[in-house]
Amino acid sequence: MIDLRRLQLLHALAHHRTVAATAEALNVTSSAVSQQLAALAREEGVPLVERQGRRFVLTGAARVLLERAPTIFAEMERASADLAAYSKGERGVVRVGSFATGISDLIAPALAKLRISHPGWHFEVLQAEPEESAEMVRTGHLDVALTMSTAHLPPSGDPDFRADPIMVELFDAVLPYQHPLASRPGLHLAEDLRDEDWILSAPGTAWHGCVTAATHQAGFQPRVAHTADDLSAVFALVQAGLGITLMPRLAWAGLNTPHLVVRGVRGTAKRHIVMLSRAGADPEPLLTAVREASNKVPVPSMGPPFALIS
């Protein structure tokens, strides 16, 4: 019989390529990785790795074995899900990761509802940014991750993951209340905001990347006057009349901040929010609860300005 944990270790080595990186991802020592790989090779009676200098290279036998690995892992996840259903929801702790605004606007409301509707379920929430959440799901540090469409999202069809769409999050314009555009019934990204001073997060962040991709598509480069990653700092700069910003809808939803106006924007930036889990896993009932929470995210008015005024 193939030892499942050793097969998972071989699968991790194929992904991380080095023993050291595999050991770090799995939180074990490099010697433990080498010993377990050697034990798996002895069990199967074929060499699985070959040393080339300081690196290990997978053999043809290892690649044959790994072709079956995603199916084996998915079936084990399904078996775990079946056992959870059999026990009527008594499935211990489910580790849920999410970026910060996903926790406040989607995960927290969903879990508040599940405490009543599914009292046998227990959830542990961990803030995890998009660039790290997929790997944390892959290695078992998270069971479910709420993430977004960035370069770190696994490609469509990746056999290691299940990806369920949650919502398309639009970016809205946040303006000082006295701004000339504040009274407009609707804004257009290129026509109205091209010549404004902008406040954005630092280059390399998901927020900055989404906004600049949209402005480039609209035919202009935003004139970034101020850079801040903290939302309260961004709000303060806008309040002071120092610029405008395009802010993800989850970032301002539910806030009560004085002297600001939020307006919908045509041709705006957007990002897809996704729930990521391992292939074969069943993310219910959390998936449905999060989708229900996403339906309650407020939308800027297209009539009088939607103002955040205390």
Structure description:
There is one protein chain. The chain folds into 3 domains: 77 residues, Arc Repressor Mutant, subunit A (Orthogonal Bundle); 102 residues, D-Maltodextrin-Binding Protein, domain 2; 109 residues, D-Maltodextrin-Binding Protein, domain 2, CATH 3.40.190.10. The protein contains 11 helices and 14 strands. Strands 3, 4, 5, 6, 10, 11, 13 and 14 form an 8-stranded mixed β-sheet that branches. Strand 8, helix 8 and strand 9 form a beta-alpha-beta unit. About 2% of the residues have low confidence.
Topology (SSEs and partners):
Layout: H1 4-16, H2 19-26, H3 30-44, E1 49-52, E2 55-58, H4 60-86, E3 93-98, H5 100-117, E4 122-127, H6 130-138, E5 144-148, E6 161-176, E7 187-188, H7 189-193, E8 197-200, H8 206-218, E9 223-227, H9 231-239, E10 245-248, H10 249-252, E11 260-263, E12 265-266, E13 270-278, H11 286-294, E14 306-308
Parallel strand pairs: 3-4, 3-5, 7-12, 8-9
Antiparallel strand pairs: 1-2, 5-13, 6-10, 6-11, 6-13, 11-14
Helix pairs in contact: 1-2, 1-3, 1-4, 2-3, 5-11
InterPro entries: ArsR-like_HTH, LysR_HTH_N, LysR_subst-bd, WH-like_DNA-bd_sf, WH_DNA-bd_sf
Domain HTH lysR-type: 2-59
Protein name: DNA-binding transcriptional LysR family regulator
